Automatic annotation (TrEMBL), chain A:
This is DUF58 domain-containing protein. Residues 1-24 are annotated as: Disordered. Residues 66-278 form the DUF58 domain. Pfam families: DUF58.
UniProtKB/TrEMBL annotation, chain B:
This is BatA domain-containing protein. It comes from the Bacteria. The chain crosses the membrane at residues 6-24, 59-78. Residues 91-452 form the VWFA domain. Keywords: Membrane, Transmembrane, Transmembrane helix. The keyword Transmembrane applies.
Amino acid sequence: MTTPTGRPRSPEPDARAPSSRRGSFVDPQTLFRIKSLQLRAKAAVEGFIKGIHRSPYHGFSVEFSEYRQYSVGDDPRYLDWRLYARSDRYYVKRFEDETNLRCHLVVDSSRSMGYGTLGFTKGEYARTAAATIAYFLTLQRDAVGLAAFEDRIVEYLPPRHRPGHLRRLMGMLDREPQGKATDLVGPLDELAATVKKRGLIVLLSDLLVPAEAIRGPLARLRARGHEVIALRVLDPAEVGFTFAGPSQFRDAESGRALYVDPDAARAGYLERFAAHAAEVQQICTGLGFALRTMTTDSPLELALFDVLKSRMMRLAGPSRRPSPGGRGGGRP
Amino acid sequence: MSFLTPFFILGGLAVAAPILFHLIRRTTRSEMPFSSLIFLAPSPPRVTRRSRLEHWPLLLLRAAALAILAAAFARPFLRQTAAQDLGDVGRSRTALLIDVSASMRRGTLWSKAVAKALEVVAGCGPQDELAVLAFDASSRPVLGFAEWASLDPAQRQAAARSRIEALAPSWGATRLGQALIDAAGAIEDLGDAARASARVPRRIVLVSDLQQGSRLDALGDFDWPSDLELDARPVAAEGSNAAAEWLAPSDDDARPDALRVRVSNDPNSKRESFSLSWVDDKEARPIPVYVPPGESRVVRVPRPTAGPARTALRLEGDAHSFDDVLYLAADPEQPATVLFVGPDEPDDPEGLLYYLGRVFDAAPGRAVKVERRAPGSPLAIAADPPPALVVLAAETSPGDAASLAEFAKRGGTVLAVVAAGRAATLAAAAEVPAFDVVDAEVRGDAMLGEIAFDHPLFASVSAPQFNDFTKIRFRRYRRLPADALGEARVVARFENGDPAVIEKRLGKGRLVVFASGWKPADGWLARSSKFVPLMSALLDGPGSGEAAGPLLVGGPIPLPEGAVAVHKPDGSTVRVEPGTAAFRAAEAPGVYGVDAPGGPRRFAVNLDPLESRTAPLGVEALEQAGCRLVRSEASAEVEREATRQLQNAELEGRQKLWRPLILLAIAVLIVETWLAGRLGRARPIQAGASAP
């Protein structure tokens, strides 16, 4: 799997990406000063769109329209000749029923997501990312739903595209989670049983469970024809284990405490962490899923790339007969 | 410096713990919440090489406390202060116990025993302690530990030898159990007297024939000392033994004119045919007795006529003759006289006298003559021999009342059966003011409700199978005023608490008052089986508590009132102090004569029948009785080591060096606590981990 830049992806978070690539995006520390989740999402999307109109993603913005590029097999009747004249490219007019991507945002609200060292927690970061994606997809007239889970699904909102739906979704995301132990198997199986129509599933979690435990539920989602993007949210301290001085480390989920001297334990931690990450990556690759590891100090907009890419791939299928009520779309 | 329990010194290795803890960096108290511990392993405590100087005193204190505790638990003692003299090496303490009972008279047994005893004496070293004890029915020191120690070491063996050679077997029974306890006690007493050297090897050397009749029962509840050994050296006689024994006449004997003799034969005996014959009657034919080995037979021997002849019956045909002669005092007992003072006729079944004349007919071996004194006739109590009992059933003259009191004071028994009215004679006899006796109101009949079975009057019927008095009902009885007789004991009461039988001691004798008689009009006492033993007990008089039965060597011979001398079988005469109740110097079997006011009496004293059971007992029986027998040479080294340990324990127990060590450890821990508290307050709490 490759990033939009074509760079091979590594389990290392994109926080390590060169700053030149991140310069145009909003710094999370700044973004999280905004209290309202909705405003935060809006700012992130706007920053993303601004960044899109600049290099290195120039030309991509065209895709945020009611058009998509002509591909072999499309009906030539729906070619937009005016657009061809302007851009010298073939675009096919899209109709409303085609544009409807069904997306489920699956957000981990367990206790381990309540950890954070940057002034905000992984959970807040994940919910903000989910709000950003929801806002962005709503702009694209896609149907967005939400499933928040701990050891089971605690909040569920089916995908819709109607007035007030985004506000309800934002209100759900704004609620403080109860915080229980992580269990991926139950909630994902529950989701697979609930969601009948195929769509995009964006999983926002730290995936801090034994790697083998996630293979089964993800494979079952895959078997039902869903596209899955796993956005793994981690704190920089978890990635680098940058602690100093021995402490009693208390597990956020089980409450178990261990005496750990970081100087002595760091090498072993990083080794086990890397092995676990590689295993998760290997499982996702094996199942044909996208996995993006994001640290909470990395820009939120990066999450949108994968969603956008997946959306494009899903909508790149053979076009269907336009419905009589199809709307022509202008460019954003 | 030595240690009693050196393994506890290993506890000193615990000193490593405080040293290690002082090297370990203090565990932080800070807590770091973290998302998941699945990639973390607990870190082992880190050992730092940086030793902080300010903790050195604390470390030293903790290490010192542990080391002192370990040393205290190891129980140190100073061996040089023990300074045991070289003489302790091989030293031992021995009690030599020599059996001098009658069974040692068999064959060459005594000479063998003396030889064995002399061997023990010859084996004693100059440092050894020895005591010699002889025992039969009792044990007596021949040479005590104290005397042995006081003698010149060169003279000790010679003194012991001469004392042992002077010993001779007695006629006494064997009480081996008690003798072993006495010997153990002699050794233990010496140990208590000299604690410093109490831990030398101690043993009892027993020289005995270990016959079956040795009586080990005294060892039953004796806790044998754990470090005291018994070295049994039995001596055995050739041949077997048979024995004869008088049997008591039974009440239902078909031939009361014949004496019954039981003849027993040893299990390992080679002889079966014996005979019994009177020693001093050459004309009488011997009575043949056939007794197979291990069995016994009872034969009847015609009772001899009274006289000096026929006082000894010999068993012929036995290999060992020490127990073959049975002695018999053929003197019939002096007839006892009972005076009855009352109006009753001897042939009137409604009166008291009718039953009194018949109750003593059943008394075995006793001729009782009942004499009646009508009221008004003089009492005339004979002084020699005095009557055994005076029954007072009527009022008499004041003079007779005074003679009754005098008779009682000399040791006689007066039985008063009271009637309603003024009891002047009874009051005068009891030396109290006259009082009135009234008839008690009896509804239906009365029973005895409270009986003092410890009193001699009722002692013979105190056993559970005999002590049912519910069948004796009284139709009438008399009530005496409370404390009418002064200081007296109520022996039995009726159900309602009224006294039934009262006893008042008068000088050497007594006055017994029956509140109800044995006339049919009074009740059913005369028809009760309890009547005969009750009257027999009255006839026995006060202080006649000695057991009736065969007289044995070493046992007491009851002396009649006023006895002055005892003639032994060997012809010697022993003067008796006035008031002596029993003669206790019957050291040999035979017929003893007693000079008494009522004429000379004779008593036959025989050997203890158990002494005739000469079959060997076996050393194992001593072990079963709880004795610790001497062990073999194989365990001698173990024994020496155990002895050394005991000596060490003794030294340590006296020095008790662990006590100051424990106190020192407590003091060190107090200082350590104080210092740790100060350092703890002075040390800032280390900050927890900080997030990056």
